[in-house]
């Protein structure tokens, strides 16, 4: 049975509390009998995410095979599912940090016996090497970095690259990355934009405008891409709402 998100949770809660027959209207465009459920479900979803982020210290202590990886667990699971389902054979990552996510991708590629990762960061914080990872140092939008990407894709004979944006999450930088890296994504492949939660939760208000604003601005001027809503909300509790952008043409 498919669970219909926070909405279903709220309806269940209302049934438990005997409020299921109550009708309500709201001022945010939601109308009719479901208005109250919609408002509560949005609030409940935000509250649950906030609780998870605070409880896990924003995933700051998560590890993958012993290495720190700064990722929400549901999102990283969706990533491995996508890599397998789509036949991804190359990951272009902006934002290496300590290399945890690059190491995660490389581990999946080890198991699949294919694939390579190029990861880019302004800082050199990763202290390991891996045969499936190329570390580049510089800003993700620096032409000196961007010009190296096609050669790396060709060198590894990759046919299905995936772009993974997890560097500076300010809207301006993410928009620049989306515009610069979209050229590396073939039809049917994806750009995954991390941390749109910044624009959703009050907790991150100081870091706005963030990735969701960049996604909206990018899609307004580039109709080759669309949001894969199913994948973006795969496990409900995501750090990256509307984060999976599929190249459709
Ligand atoms: C959220 S962390 C990356 C976490 C990592 N992907 C992981 O899951 O373990 C963001 C990283 O982006 C880097 N960064 C910030 N601005 C950047 C830029 N313009 N280009 C490349 N990397 C940048 C920071 O130095 C930081 O290490």
Could you characterize what this model shows?
The longest helix is centred in the first third of the chain and has 21 residues, at 35-55. The mean pLDDT is 91. The chain folds into two domains: 5-55, no CATH class; 63-247, Rossmann fold (3-Layer(aba) Sandwich), CATH 3.40.50. α1 packs across α2 (35-55) and α7 (171-181) packs across α8 (211-221). It has 249 residues and is an alpha/beta fold. The radius of gyration is 19 Å and the shape is globular. Helix content is 39%, strand content 14%. The chain has helices at residues 5-17, 35-55, 73-86, 100-112, 143-146, 149-155, 171-181, 211-221, 229-232; strands at 63-64, 67-68, 90-94, 116-121, 133-137, 161-165, 190-193, 225-227, 244-247. It has nine helices and nine strands. It binds S-adenosylmethionine. S-adenosylmethionine is lined by residues 69-71, 94-95, 97-98, 100-101, 120-123, 125, 139-140, 166-168, 173. S-adenosylmethionine binds at residues 69-71, 94-95, 97-98, 100-101, 120-123, 125, 139-140, 166-168, 173.
């Amino acid at each position: 049975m498919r669970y219909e998100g926070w909405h279903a949770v709220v309806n269940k809660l209302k049934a438990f509390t005997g409020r299921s027959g109550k009708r309500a209207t709201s001022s945010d465009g939601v109308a009719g009998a479901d208005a109250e459920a919609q408002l509560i479900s949005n609030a409940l979803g935000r509250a649950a995410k906030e609780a998870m982020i605070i409880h896990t210290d924003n995933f700051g202590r998560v590890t993958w095979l012993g290495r720190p990886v700064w990722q929400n667990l549901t999102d990283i699971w969706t990533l491995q599912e996508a890599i397998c389902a789509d036949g991804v054979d190359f990951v272009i990552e902006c934002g290496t940090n300590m290399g945890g996510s690059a190491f995660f991708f490389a581990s999946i590629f080890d198991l699949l016996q294919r694939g390579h990762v190029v990861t880019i960061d302004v800082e050199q914080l990763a202290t390991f090497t891996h045969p499936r990872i190329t570390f580049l140092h510089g800003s993700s939008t620096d032409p000196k970095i961007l010009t190296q990407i096609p050669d790396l894709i060709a060198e590894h004979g990759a046919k299905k690259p995936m772009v993974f944006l997890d560097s500076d999450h300010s809207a301006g930088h993410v928009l620049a990355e989306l515009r610069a890296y979209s050229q590396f994504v073939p039809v049917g492949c994806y750009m995954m934009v991390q941390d749109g939660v910044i624009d959703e939760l009050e907790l991150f208000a100081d870091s706005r405008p963030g990735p969701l604003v960049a996604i909206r601005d990018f899609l307004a001027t580039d109709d080759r891409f669309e949001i894969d809503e199913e994948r973006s909300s795969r496990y409900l509790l995501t750090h990256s709402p509307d984060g999976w952008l599929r190249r459709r043409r």
